[in-house]
Every structure is written in structure tokens, then in C-alpha cells.
Amino acid sequence: MRLNEKVAIVTGAGSGIGKHIAKSYAREGAKVCVSDIILETARATAQEIRDAGGVASAERMDVTDEREVNQVTDKVAAEWGGIDILVSNAGIQHLDTIADVSFENWKRVLAVHLDGGFLTSKASLRHMIDHKRGGSIIFTGSVHSYYASEQKGPYCVAKHGLVGLCRALAKEGAHHGIRANTICPALVRTPLIEKQLPVLAAQRGVSEEQLVHDLFLRFTVDNEYTTVAELAEVAVFLASFPTNALTGQSICVAHGMHML
Ligand SMILES: NC(=O)c1ccc[n+]([C@@H]2O[C@H](COP(=O)([O-])OP(=O)(O)OC[C@H]3O[C@@H](n4cnc5c(N)ncnc54)[C@H](O)[C@@H]3O)[C@@H](O)[C@H]2O)c1
Predict the structure, then answer these.
(1) pTM value?
(2) If you take atom 14 of ligand 1, which residue's CA is the nearest one?
């Protein structure tokens, strides 16, 4: 068990990538707070973990709400004696060109990723520093942390920004044995992507299969989606890595779609 007795908070863990990371952490022995803006989905993930013999709690936490973030983080630290791992994963997408996107939607996307990344790290950092046993903060970035796609301007800006936040945290956290890293997935078949498929296919006048082939997987080395299992494995590796040798990094888990 690579995360025995560790305490982890995973945001956006009611679905997709976060859900699988939460389940993998529990399998590796961590106590996991499954948090999501949708409490029912968080509860369902936590129940799956408990049914499999793991330890999990479920909390509603909107990562853009400072009060809620602090309340949940403090509660987890009080109940389980600290925080060792934060996976700041909650995310949304909004498709629009920069010429068309409303200021409201621009701010909404930046808020979930950047305010969310900041607020959840700040809340966990306080406990990691106080408890003096180090920690690991992991952001879910994207291949869009490094390059751009049309109609994803706010998302690209937010994901690029997370890399900066991660690097700054790695410098400051090092004094306390706290590491920060970013996982940058390519396309993973989760609800976030499923919602985009019909919209983009209709806009381009092609089938969803054609869109996947021509746009989504075109620049991978093997025409394959990245899987939640592949990402969860990297998230376990990063969380369990023992030294500061691996900090401030972003790792593209992307079937070669982007190479750093
Ligand atoms: N799916 C992909 O292809 C892909 C690729 C690269 C990066 N990512 C990133 O991975 C992360 C997870 O995405 P996913 O694909 O699993 O999508 P998903 O839609 O399956 O899961 C996202 C989760 O975040 C939650 N969420 C949304 N807003 C929130 C908020 N304000 N506070 C708390 N929770 C909130 C949702 O309720 C949902 O459960 C996101 O940061 C996303 O940008 C996804």
C-alpha cells in the first residue's frame, strides 16, 4: 500500500478523473475525502470506496467558495489528524471563441480552475505546514496547459495558469517538505468530453467518430484516449513519491499528444 494512513482530499471526485483517483488512493490505503459541488455524486463515490473496504467521507465543496473550502478542509484535518495529499481536480469546460465568450463565462472557467486551485491549496497548506509532516499537492492541468485549441480560450488560460501556481507552490512548499506537481491529461472519455462531442461535431458538420479521429486523437502517437486508470496511476505515483526531487513538474499523460 503506497499511501497507507495518508489523508487525501480530492476535488471534483464525484465523476470522471477525480473519482478514479479517489478510488485508487483508497485502494492504496489512504483515507479519502471525496468532494464535489454535487453532493450526491460525491456520496456515491465514497460509498463505492467503502463497499470495497476503503475509508472515505463525502463532502459538498464548491472550490470557488472560500468559506466552504476552508470549512471542509478544516473538518477533514480535525477528524483525520491532518492533510497529506490534495488533488485539486475539479474542472469545467466552456466552448466559445474569445470574440464571442461572455465575460461571465470567462470568469466562471477561470474561477473553477484558478480560484479553486488557489483556495484549496491555501486551505490544505495551512494544515500541512502546522502538522510538519510535509505533503503533496497535485493539480489536474491538461495538454491545454501547454498549447491552445480554438474555442477553448478561457480553459487554456486557466490550465496554463495552474502550471504557474504549481511552480510557485513548489518553491514555497519546499521549506516544509510540501511538493506540488501537475498532471496534464490529453483526451479522456469523461462527461466533460462527452458534452463537447455533439456540439463540435454539429458545428463542423461531421460525425462524432470523425471528429474524434480528425481532431481529438489526431496528434496522439497511437490514436488512443488517455484513460482514468492511467491518470490515477500517475496520481498515486506523484502522491507517494518520497522526496523533493519531483516537485514543480507537470507531466503530460497524453499518449504523446504533447511532448515536453
Ligand atoms: N476529460 C478530459 O479529456 C480532460 C483532459 C484534460 C484535463 N481534464 C481535467 O480533468 C479534471 C476532471 O475533469 P473530468 O474529465 O473528470 O470531468 P468531469 O466532468 O467528469 O468531472 C469534473 C467534476 O468537477 C466537478 N465540479 C465542477 N465545478 C466544480 C466546483 N466549482 N467545485 C467542485 N467541483 C466542481 C463536477 O461536478 C464533476 O464531478 C478537470 O480539471 C478537467 O479540466 C480533463
Answers:
(1) 0.98
(2) 16
